[in-house]
Write a structure and sequence with these properties.
about 300 residues; mainly alpha; 2 domains; about 75% helix
Amino acid sequence: MGETPKRLVSGLLIAGAFIFAISYQGMYMLPLLLFTVTFAVIGIVEFYRLAGAKLKDRIPATVGVVGTILLLLLVWLGWQANYYVPGAALYNEGVKKALGLLKLNYPFLGGLLFLFLAAVLKLQLLKNRVENSFAMIAVYIASIVYIPFTFSHLFLLYSLESGLFYVWMVTWATAMADTGGYFMGKAFGRHKVGFAVSPNKTYEGYILGGVLQNILVHVFYYVAETHFNVPRYSFVEITIFGLIIYITSILGDLAESLFKRDAGIKDSGSLIPGHGGVLDLVDAMLITIPAAYYYFYIVQELRRI
């Protein structure tokens, strides 16, 4: 099978799994948790591989993997605790009381991050050598912020009123940002921006890609508003949303390219045929999902004033 068919088939399979994960609302959105944890764990292992190639040192992934799972689990439990009420599946009073502790989710999250930091420091000290210590500790901390912390915003975005709609919006806007920039750059790109991390990017591709992406975001919202019961937003609010997602999508894409170029590695992994690794696939979404959450959260709060 050629590279393009591989890319198409693997892309469709992952898209199908993602659509099922965000659409199936039974069992406390467990498929979404499993999907997110799986991608985050693979992504953080790939991140350590890139960093290890740069530092020419092996970076054990165990602490990062455990921290990733616990962070995502904590945010998911805090979200789903709101739906764990008498009559819900597998309801138990003892479990409900335990979940009540998640009202203290900020201390829990802070405590988890503290334990992660302590584990990282202990791990580096037990190596009994000082070489690369500064860089190793920085890599561990950056990995938790860059992958599970950002990815956990998928649960937060879904927790907003009409959350599924917002997940669809940011997914579409991010995909169109990549598509618009690629095709406009191919068709009209003449003047190179000069990014060392991505030397072929052009001003025309970025500008015209942003215009095309924003038009397609408006089309998506118009269709959704016409056929479904979705939150009402003005033309200006949707335009600002599209612009924010376009800029953060570029940031996410270039950031991952920066890591790979510094490590001297073409792809973050080889798990997904035609695409490379998980980070190659979700690099933009790691940044656009938090951006979408904070944008819609702030707009909703401003409307309540």
